[in-house]
Each structure stands twice: as C-alpha cells, then as structure tokens.
Design goal:
Blueprint (H helix, E strand, L loop, with lengths): L12 H15 L12 E5 L11 H19 L3 E5 L1 E2 L3 H13 L5 H4 L1 H15 L2 H8 L10 E2 L3 H16 L3 E11 L4 E3 L4 E17 L2 H7 L3 H11 L3 H14 L14 E6 L10 E4 L13 E3 L6 E6 L11 E4 L5 H10 L30 H14 L3 E14 L7 E10 L2 H12 L4 E3 L2 H11 L4 E2 L1 E2 L9 E4 L7 E3 L14 E3 L3 E2 L2 H4 L2 H4 L8 H6 L4 E4 L4 H16 L6 E4 L3 E2 L16 H8 L1 H11 L6 E2 L5 H25 L17 H22 L3 H28 L8 H17 L4 H8 L25 H23 L8 E6 L3 H9 L1 H8 L1 E6 L7 E5 L5 E5 L6 H27 L1 H6 L2 H28 L2
Parallel strand pairs: 1-2, 3-4, 9-11, 15-23, 22-23, 24-25, 26-27
Antiparallel strand pairs: 5-6, 5-14, 7-8, 7-10, 7-13, 9-12, 10-11, 14-16, 17-21, 18-19, 18-20, 26-29, 28-29
The protein binds one RNA strand of 74 nucleotides through helix 14, helix 21, helix 23, helix 26 and helix 30.
Length: 941
RNA sequence: GGGCGAAUAGCUCAGCGGUUCAGAGCGCCUGCCUUACACGCAGGAUGUCGGGGGUUCGAAUCCCUCUUCGCCCA
C-alpha cells in the first residue's frame, strides 16, 4: 500500500498494477462466498480459443464483463465470473499443423495419436497465456473455477449430450452434400462456411443434343459423337482435334447465339468444372422455350456422357438460359433436385478431398489431378476451341469460404452426423417470445429469432483429430452394421457382439461450447455449483457468434436443464480501425492490448473501450495513433490520482466521518458537492443497470473533473491550508466524496481506484474490490445549493471571460461589482465571496450598483448584472460590439421561447411542467436582455 | 434477392420527443510552469444534425422516401 505522504505526481500504472492485482487475489475477492445468503450473479466468459493471444476484441469484451461483475459484487451479490478456454478444433489443429510443417512434417506423418499428443503438449505450454493476459486488464475471474472444453469432466458432458440426443432421435447420421474445406480437410457447418462477395462469371455452355433429332441435323451419329469426345479427352492435341471435328458437325462460328437449337441446349453455369458430375439438365415445367424436351438426352461437353433433360419447378426461369445443370455430388440444391428426379440415380463425385479433379472415368484424362480452378480455366479454353462456349458474362455473387482459412468451400457428398434442430429451436424461440431472454441492444433479438425460425440441421462431425471424438462405434460384422453409441467405449457391438471400431471423426467445437453455461459446473452431475450458479445472468459477447454460440446455448439450456442459461445477452460492438475494418491479425491493423497497458495503463484501456462502447456501436480505434485513442483514459486516471494526492496529503489523521459533522456547519460548497455527489451515485447506478456503460463512465468523468476537481477542491483549499476557519468540515466532506468516487469508479478503473483506496484514511473495507456500492442519500440532495452554486460558477466564468477578452494579465486582480437579480445570486455571493474572488482573481467583489466609469459588462443567467471596471483597458466600441453580440444571441433564444408560448395549442396540449419551464426561460431571457440593454445605454453605444 | 445499422464540429463519436439542446474527447487558436496534476489551468473558434416529405403544441430524436457507407442472411 502506498505511503500517503509520497504519492508520485504522476500515476504510474506499471508500478502498481501487478501489486494491486495480487492484493485482490490475496484477499480472495474474486471467488464468491458459496454459502452466503445472497442472490447470485453469474457471468460465464466466452471462452477464448486456447491458442489465442489477447486482442482488442477480448479487451473490450472482458472489460465489460469485469465492470458488470465488479458492480454486482459491490452491490452485495454472490458474483461469479467463470473463466476458461475453448479447445477450438480447427483453429488449434491448424496452428500445430503449421508448427510441424516447419519440421517438414504433416500430421499424417505423425499419425493420429502422436499428433494429438503434440497438440496437448502445445496447449499445456501455451494454453494459459490468454488467461494470464486477461489478468493484465484487471479481469476479476474466479480462477479456481477455470475450465477447458477438453477437461475430462467437460468431455463427459459432451459425450452424455451426444448419447442423449442420439437416443432421442435428435442426432442422426446422414448422407448429404455438406460444406467441405479442401485445405482443412473437414466438413463445416452452414455457419462456418461464410459468404463472401466474389466477382464470378457465368459461362453459357452448349450441351449437344444426342439422339435422332441431332443426328439428322448434324449428320453425325451418337457413336461418332462419342468418338469425338473421347478424342477430346486425350489431352491438348485431342482437344484441338475435337475443335476441328466440331466444324464437321456444324459451323460453330457461323451459328448465331441462341438458347436452343436443334443441335444443342445452352446451359448457364458459374462452375463449368463440375459438369462432369452432371446427371441431368433441367428446366421449369412451364418454360415454353423448352417444352417437349423432357426425356431427350444431351451430352456433357468434353466427356460426352449422356444425361437426360428433366423438369423441376425449383428452376428460376429468369436465371441464365432457364436451363440448370444438375450436379448432385457438388451442390446441395442439385442434390435435392436429383433426388426428386430419380431417388435411386447415381451421384457421381468428380473431385478429390483436395478439390482436384478426380481420377474417375467421367473426368477426361487430361484434366485429372488438376486443381478445380486450373481445371475450370482449361475447360473454358477447350469449350471455346470447340465452339461450345456461347458467351461469358460477369456475375458477381457470394460464395462460401472456410471461416478458419478462407479457402473456397467445395460442396461434397458424404456421410456426416447431424443434429435435428427444430425440436431444440422451438423452446428457445418460445422463451424469447415470452420475454425470458433480453437482448441489449434489442434489435439483435430479431436476428436470433429469424435464425431460429429458419433453422436447419447442424452438421457436427469434423474430419479432424483435435477435439471430442464422436462416441459412435461401427460393427464390422457382415450383415450387422449396427452403430453403438455410448458414453464409454464398448468392447463389442451391442447388438451382435462383434468387433467394433470408433468413428474417426471429432465433434464440431461448438458442440462442446453450447454446454458451457452448465457443463462448467459439473453437469450432468447434480453438483452444488450447478444448483448455486445455474441459471446465470448476463452473457457478454460479440454479435457475430449469435448463431454459433448464443442461440445454441439457449437451446441447450432449455433442452437439458429446462431453464434459460442467462437472462440478458449484451452484444458488444466490434473493434475496428479508422477505416472501419475489423481489427484482425491478417490485416495487421490490430492493437495489442498489452502494449496499451504498458504505455497507458489498464485503466486507460478500459476507460477508452468503455467510453467508446455506447450500446450497439462499434469501437473505432486508430492502430497508428495510440495517443489519440488512449490518452484521455490515461489523463483521467492521472487526474483522479492527483485529486487523491491532494486530498490524501491534506487529510489530518483525525478527520471525522461525515456523519459526525453537524450539517449546520456545511458551507454552500459543501452542500453543493454533497448534493452533486448523490446525483452522481444515482446517475451512475441507473446507467449501469441499463447497460449504458459509456454514460456511467461519462457521468463520473464529469463529476470528478468538472465538479470535484475544478470547483470543490479549489473552493476548499483556503480551509485546508488553515487560512480560514472550518478546517474540520472540508476534510470530512472531501473524504466522503472521494471515497464515494473511488467506489463508483472502481468497476470501470479498478487499478487506480484500488491503489488510492489503500491510502484513504479512516475506517473502511480493506479492499475496494470487496467494498460496498454507495447508496444515494436523498437527505443530502439540495436544490437550493445546486442553484446558488451554479450562479457562483456563472459569475466566476463571466469575470474570467472578461479578463481573457481584454487581456488582463493573469497576475493582476480586478474589482468586480455584481447587482444580484435573485436571492440565489445574492446568497451565493455572500456565501462564496472568497471563492469567487480567488478563482476569478478579483480584488474585491462588491454587491450593489456599479460605479460609473469605463468597464466590461456581463449578465448572469438569472439577469444579475456584472461590472468589471477596467479603465483604460476598455475599448468602448469593442465593448459595445461584444454586448450587442450577446444581446443578439439572447434575442434569438427569447424569440424562440416567445413563439412557443404564443402558440395556443402548445399551451393547451403541452404538460404543465413543460409550459412552466418555457415561461421560466422566457423571464430569464427577458431579464438578461433588460440588463444588457441598460448596459448598452450606460455605455452610450 | 431479403433484412439490419450508420450518416451530428477538422477527426472519433454521445445525444433516451420537452432541462439554456446542438454536446464530449481529441485536434486547433490565445494566455498561463497559479505550491494536486503541463497527462495540467483559464478562455476561445468551428455545425443547413446526409437530402426531401410527414406525424406532433414541439423533431437531431418518431414515420416515409431518396442518397452514400457498412454489416448480416439467402
């Protein structure tokens, strides 16, 4: 703890933060008293990826959580902030794969067990990093309850859920087209395959009509056509040959563009490389352009494979040519169409897991092994050479990319595990509609609702090694084929007793994350913690994981525990740079929060993100200019520090508690600051309760700087220095007000407040983090003092303004005359004469009529006249101009008020208090105008 | 294609139908090292609140529309 007498003139965050944090840990304030008879308040942290390093997103998010948990802790609730990390399947596996790649190895070289072991080693070495970094920004998590999504107990919950859902028929194995990342080599959920706008092309490709009609027209036979395409498949030379032969059937170059000829149909596609997997060409049944074509066979260009023309009502007639090629193994929509046309039809795959062209009969030999995009380029060349490419149009569209590595996703037909979501979504939707779940800001509720309404089944299997292995075992016995799903590994098939082998895949990371609000408390066991701390209260997270995480936690909470996991979802903004780009590692536009902590202090970081985080707005920071972003917070912490330094060094050891001071001995300024202090308590508390965090911090900033420091501390100096009597009262008031400020500011800026708290004399809780939140004392609210002191401030301001305007040297004092228009000004001047004189550098403040002579004039808001005789310093013309400007300003205001008050309908319809306020304004403006008019007359303007 | 958000001072943004409501911080200008703080003090300048229309006694605030930018979903 700091020595009261030796506080440094500048707050040095680096010198105190570690020790302050240790003080909290030693005091044990982060762990709730489990047995306390208090209402719990629970936040579960959005577990950062175990390999993550702290970035500003974490900085924002965790500052908000810490502020909320500290606030409720001080309000006496049993506050638990549960920390932990997520194993982050793909992300972590990718990190370690990159590591071993530096050794020239792939995970396959190590084998599954060795690779997973390697990941564990990595996690054990570096996994605690982000949690340590959270401490640097002051996070008051209950570290004793830290969880990891791959902990044994947590894994048990994951298996339990899988088995339970499987037995309820809510998990099933399905053969579907899923999103496949050819780089990560795994399936992805819909949410993990992000749309990105892309400048694509729409290729209009001619599919030759096979059969009699074409033969008559083209004078060729089906056999010949097949030979042609066989030649085309023979490589570059073959392609040229095919091009030449194309001319033998019809002069391609002479044919005008058309949708349909007797010889071919033109199909528009964005992905020509998939055409070898086509099983049909379809058009809308009512599309007259293609009437009567159904059943006709056409040939896939370059391969010559024959496929039928069919109809489907899902085809958009206006898109492309109205003809759609159906590639069931490489497009989810096409898969559905193909199943409708022919449920038993073949669904040929023509690409490998790497998204290269497969070595299969349907793919022309010269294209096999090529990357899909290279294949597309070659195919387009060949089509063009053969006159089969009618045209190419630019086609901007959105295509899906892997959310982890950015690779274009390849739709792929495969066996995967799915969760049937509708039955889980219904209660989550109903609960939201019943008001059991509140989103802040509210609009995100609509996003949540829309997603749940349109929910689709969730692909949860991932072809990775790092994660929860799927607890399903396949029986290899001929004719059995049973799948045993169990929490613990079976030794044999539960049906036939045969040998079993476990599914190779792991579960989607989010399949464990969605259990976070209760699996962290030991569920499915009925633990004491679960009873105490579930359901939780506030979830703080970014809106981009509403689907991934938030909605699924709600579904899981209701399904498995019958209760919501939290009552409020607070969605933060996103941290962006000045070009509004999301801060990210890849863009290199990030700000390292630890660098900010080093340079400006954790409190400054917190101050900046809190003031920048008005509800629902993104936080914009300039990575190139930390000073602009963080100086304000640093300066404010330093201001508070210096107010503290002033107060603490001036408090006598025997400073009485405020309650021991006779209120009769309060001066006007004491009454005023105590009154303002109560208002600030109320304002801050309400703002925090409403999640208006920036307003809470703003109110405190204003109170500390503009009221306490600028006015009260200045007012009190003569009393503290013993120049005037009343030396006991002021310290008591200062101690009370400053102690209150430290409490109020603690959730936002815990370090500087705690450090100052340690130096605060008197009896109080030993650790501020464990201190109680102030209660506003309405007995100290004092409207009269508010009004009178406001006029004192007004008067000082008026004189300062005059001094500056006329360039009065700072050291020179002036005489000032004030003619009070109201009792408030008269009493304010009586009570605070010395303060006014000192702060405005007035030699003597005299009440009454101004003497004759040349001087500067001003008018206070209540119409009180102020006169500062300045003799030669005054340029009368300039003074006249100054006053006329002032009159003009007042006239404008007055005119507006008069207009309002002359409006009959306003008087009839507006509430009485509003009308009264307008009348008060009117009289105020009139007073001021009258005063100024007189001044102008006196000056002879 | 559907939805959401934003547009206010040079910059970043608050502003919740009615407080002297057109604001804060930063930046800028002037003057001050006044024994808590130069990370400070005092004073000052800067705006068609994106355009247009409407509702209302009253609109930066609510509604409609247009423009520009951003995000989400399909």
């Amino acid at each position: 703890m700091p020595d009261t007498r030796s506080l440094a003139p500048q707050f040095d965050p680096a010198a105190v933060e570690t020790a302050v944090y240790q003080r909290w840990v030693d005091a044990g304030v982060f762990a709730p008293d489990d047995d306390a008879d208090a209402e719990p308040y629970v936040i579960v942290i959005p577990p950062p990826n175990v390999t993550d390093r702290l970035h500003m997103g974490h900085g924002l998010n965790n500052t908000i959580q810490d502020l909320l948990i500290r606030f409720e802790r001080m309000r006496g609730r049993k506050a638990l902030w549960l920390p932990g990390t997520d194993h982050a399947g793909i992300a972590t596996q990718n990190v370690v794969e990159r590591l071993i790649a530096k050794e020239g190895k792939r995970r396959q070289d190590l084998g599954r067990d060795a690779f997973v072991e390697r990941v564990w080693t990595y996690v054990h070495e570096t996994g605690g990093t982000i949690l340590e970094q959270l401490k640097a920004i002051g996070s008051s998590c209950d570290w004793g309850r830290t969880r990891f999504t791959l902990d044994e107990t947590y894994s048990r919950a994951v298996r339990h859920v899988f088995v339970a859902l499987y037995r309820d028929g809510l998990i099933y194995r399905g053969y579907r087209v899923i999103h496949w990342c050819p780089r990560c080599h795994t399936a992805l959920s819909d949410e993990e395959a992000e749309f990105r706008d892309t400048e694509g092309k729409l290729y209009h490709v001619r599919y030759r009509i096979a059969g009699d009609a074409a033969e008559q027209k083209a004078g060729s036979t089906a056999e010949e056509t097949a030979e042609e395409t066989a030649g085309a498949a023979g490589g570059a030379e073959g392609a040229e040959g095919a091009a030449r032969q194309g001319g033998s059937g019809a002069d391609a170059s002479a044919v005008p563009p058309f949708r349909r000829s007797a010889e071919w149909l033109t199909v528009a596609t964005t992905r020509p490389e998939t055409m070898f997997g086509d099983v049909a060409v379809v058009h809308h049944p009512e599309d007259e352009r293609y009437a009567g074509l159904a059943g006709t066979m056409v040939e896939i260009p370059l391969s010559g494979v024959r496929i039928p023309v069919a109809t489907s009502s899902v085809v958009e007639r206006d898109f492309g040519t109205g003809l759609l090629k159906v590639t069931p193994a490489h497009d989810a929509n096409d898969f559905e169409i193909a199943r409708m046309i022919d449920p038993d039809g073949e669904m040929p795959g023509i690409m490998t897991a790497d998204a290269t062209m497969a070595d299969v009969a349907r793919v022309p030999a010269d294209l096999r092994g090529l990357d899909r995009f290279e294949a597309r380029r070659r195919i387009v060349e060949q089509l063009e050479a053969q006159g089969l490419l009618e045209k190419v149009e630019p086609h901007p569209h959105s295509i899906r990319h892997c959310y982890r590595c950015g690779t274009v996703v390849e739709p792929r037909l495969s066996d995967q595990w799915f969760v049937r979501m509708q039955p889980l979504a219904d209660p989550a939707l109903a609960a939201y509609r019943a008001g059991e779940l509140t989103f802040v800001p509210e609009r995100w509720g609509a996003v949540y609702e829309h997603w749940l309404t349109e929910i689709r089944d969730w692909n949860i299997s991932r072809q990775l090694w790092w994660g929860h292995r799927i607890p399903a075992w396949y029986c290899d016995v001929e004719g059995c084929g049973h799948i045993t799903v169990a929490e613990t590994a079976p030794s044999t098939c539960e049906r036939c007793g045969g040998a079993v082998r476990q599914d190779e895949d792991v579960l989607d990371t989010w399949f464990s994350s969605w259990l976070w609000p209760f699996a962290t408390f030991g569920w499915p066991d009925a633990t004491e913690d679960l009873a105490r701390y579930y359901p939780g209260h506030t979830l703080v997270t970014a809106p981009d994981i509403i689907f991934f995480w938030v909605a699924r936690m709600v579904m899981g909470g209701y399904h498995f525990l019958g209760k919501r996991p939290f009552d409020t979802v607070f969605l933060t903004g996103i941290v962006r740079d000045t070009q509004h780009r999301k801060m990210s590692k890849s863009l290199g536009n990030g700000i390292d929060p630890l660098e900010v902590v080093r340079g400006y202090g954790a409190d400054a970081l917190r101050y900046t993100v809190l003031t920048g985080a008005a509800i629902g707005t993104d936080v914009l920071l300039d990575p190139a200019d930390l000073e602009t972003s963080f100086a304000a917070g640093r300066n404010f912490a330093n201001k508070l520090w210096n107010v503290g330094r002033f107060i603490l060094t001036n408090l006598a050891p025997g400073t009485p508690d405020l309650s021991a001071v006779d209120p009769q001995t309060f001066e006007l300024a004491d009454r005023w600051i105590l009154s303002r202090c109560q208002a600030t308590i109320a304002e801050t508390t309400v703002a925090l309760e409403r999640y208006r965090l920036n307003e809470a911090v703003g109110a405190l900033y204003h109170f500390v700087w503009d009221e306490l420091a600028d006015w009260y501390v200045e007012q009190v100096k003569p009393r503290l220095y013993g120049d005037v009597p009343g030396g006991d009262v002021a310290p008591a008031v200062l101690a009370h007000v400053f102690g209150t400020v430290l409490r109020l500011l603690h959730p936002a800026m815990p370090f500087v407040t705690e450090e100052l708290w340690g130096a605060l004399p008197g009896t109080h809780e030993p650790v501020l983090a464990g201190a109680r939140w102030p209660q506003a004392d309405d007995g100290l609210r004092d409207e009269e003092a508010d009004a009178r002191f406001a006029l004192v401030q007004d008067l000082v301001g008026a004189v300062r303004n005059i001094r500056a305007e006329y360039g009065v040297a700072p050291g020179r004092t002036v005489r000032t005359f004030v003619r009070p228009a109201t009792l408030d000004t008269a009493e304010g001047c009586n009570a605070e004469q010395r303060t006014i004189e000192r702060l405005a550098r007035i030699e003597t403040l005299t009440q009454g009529h101004a003497p004759s002579g040349v001087g500067a004039h001003a008018v206070l808001r209540d119409g009180s006249a102020v006169f500062v005789p300045l003799g030669d310093a005054i340029d009368v013309a300039r003074e006249c101009a100054r006053l006329r400007d002032e009159v003009a300003r007042i006239e404008t205001q007055l005119a507006a008020v008069v207009r309002t008050l002359e409006n009959e309908r306003f008087l009839a319809k507006a509430p009485a208090d509003v009308v009264a306020r307008e009348r008060a304004k009117e009289s105020s403006w009139r007073e001021q105008r009258a005063t100024l008019a007189e001044k102008l007359r006196v000056l002879g303007c």
